[in-house]
Write a structure and sequence with these properties.
By secondary structure, this protein is α/β, with parallel strands linked by helices. It has a single domain (2-176), classed as Vaccinia Virus protein VP39 (Rossmann fold, 3-Layer(aba) Sandwich), CATH 3.40.50. It has helices at residues 2-6, 22-26, 28-31, 45-54, 66-72, 90-100, 140-147; strands at 10-16, 36-42, 60-63, 77-81, 104-113, 118-124, 131-139, 151-158, 168-176. The chain is globular, with a radius of gyration of 16 Å.
């Protein structure tokens, strides 16, 4: 809402790893009050295909890459919610995002530790479905130093997620340094 207020009621957001638009749908009651919303989700091809076919609207669109989204509109903010730690190379994605110079980067639901970056295996409870995923726990100080090279910290907040290793799930709003 802060970004939309700065842009006279217009919000252009790239939601990286946004599945089929759950965050968009959760916030639709607020988004509908804005002048204009461009919410682009960048996802794996299977999600992108289903999203385009079943969920696309004038405001909500699905893309296969960051570049494809930037071809349709320029995001003011990039949202990374519970996604960085599932990537094979989290800092490689952050390099790509920082190079695109969005005004804001919002990171949410991301686990951090005080020691060295650590790769683990996340086991999904069988009551949900049977699966395992590689999952990073990033060193908080290294991550912050990395982000603060190009962005200023606007807001830091606790996320509600938890893990069975000593860690904290955090969220951050960063603004591009000018």
């Amino acid at each position: 809402m802060m970004v939309a207020a700065e842009n006279k009621g217009v919000l252009n957001i790239l939601d990286f790893g946004g599945a089929l638009g759950s965050t968009y749908q959760q916030n639709k009651i607020f988004l509908d009050r804005l002048t204009k919303v461009n919410w682009g989700i960048v996802e794996q091809n299977c999600f992108t295909e289903i999203g385009r076919r079943e969920f696309s609207t004038e405001s909500l669109r699905f893309f296969s890459s960051i570049e494809e989204c930037y071809g349709a509109f320029r995001p003011d903010m990039i949202l990374l919610s519970s996604v960085i730690h599932y990537l094979e190379e989290p800092y490689k994605l952050l390099d790509q995002i920082i190079a695109a110079k969005p005004e804001y980067i919002l990171i949410d639901r991301t686990p951090f530790i005080s020691g060295k970056d650590r790769i683990t295996i996340q086991k999904v409870p069988p009551s949900i479905y049977r699966a395992t995923y590689p999952c990073w726990f990033l060193n908080r100080e290294k991550f912050m130093a990395y982000m603060l090279n190009s962005y200023s910290l606007v807001l830091e907040f606790d996320a509600l997620d938890r893990a069975n290793i000593p860690s904290e799930f955090k969220g951050f709003l960063f603004a591009l340094k000018k």
